[in-house]
Design goal:
By secondary structure, the chain is of the alpha/beta class. It has a single domain, classed as Hypothetical Protein Ychn, Chain: A, CATH 3.40.1260.10. Helices cover 37% and strands 18% of the residues. The protein has five helices and five strands; from the N terminus they run βαβααβαβαβ. Strands 4-3-2-1-5 form a five-stranded parallel β-sheet, sandwiched between helices. α1 runs parallel beside α3. It is globular and about 40 Å long. 34% of the residues are buried. It comes from Oceanobacillus halophilus.
């Protein structure tokens, strides 16, 4: 069995962020090598400003209070936890170019690369997940 977990973050909402970072931090805390490839709206999850303004799905706003009551860490806190656990963040170069973004728009310690960069990591990962 592989010791790698590969995650593609292609969506940029609040629920997407919790799915991505919950799986990533759990895997990293279980001594797995984890990489997340952020593409299209998924780049919001590591964008310095964007991660503070992720949208809750329509009609699901009541979850915000549930997250607070359950003391679930915020997305910026989960990003920091993932970084501390050694999760590798790969920001999609093509998407960044299309959106006019630079490495400085994102949290520290990201790698900028294309699909080939991610595929090189993911080729022997199990599982590979997409959110």
């Amino acid at each position: 069995m592989s010791n790698k977990v590969a995650i593609i973050a292609a969506n940029g909402g609040m629920f997407d962020a919790y799915k991505v970072f919950n799986i990533a931090t759990a895997a990293a805390a279980s001594d797995k090598e984890v990489a997340i490839f952020f593409t299209f709206e998924g780049l919001n999850l590591i964008h310095k400003q964007g991660m503070h303004a992720l949208e809750m799905p329509a009609g699901k706003e009541h979850f915000a209070e549930g997250f607070k009551k359950a003391q679930v860490p915020s997305i910026p806190e989960l990003v920091e936890m993932a970084t501390e656990l050694g999760v590798k963040f790969i920001a999609c170069q093509m998407t960044m170019d299309v959106m006019g973004l630079t490495k400085e728009d994102f949290v520290d310690n990201i790698e900028v690369g294309g699909a080939v960069t991610f595929l090189d990591f993911a080729k022997d990962a199990s599982p590979t997940l997409t959110f």
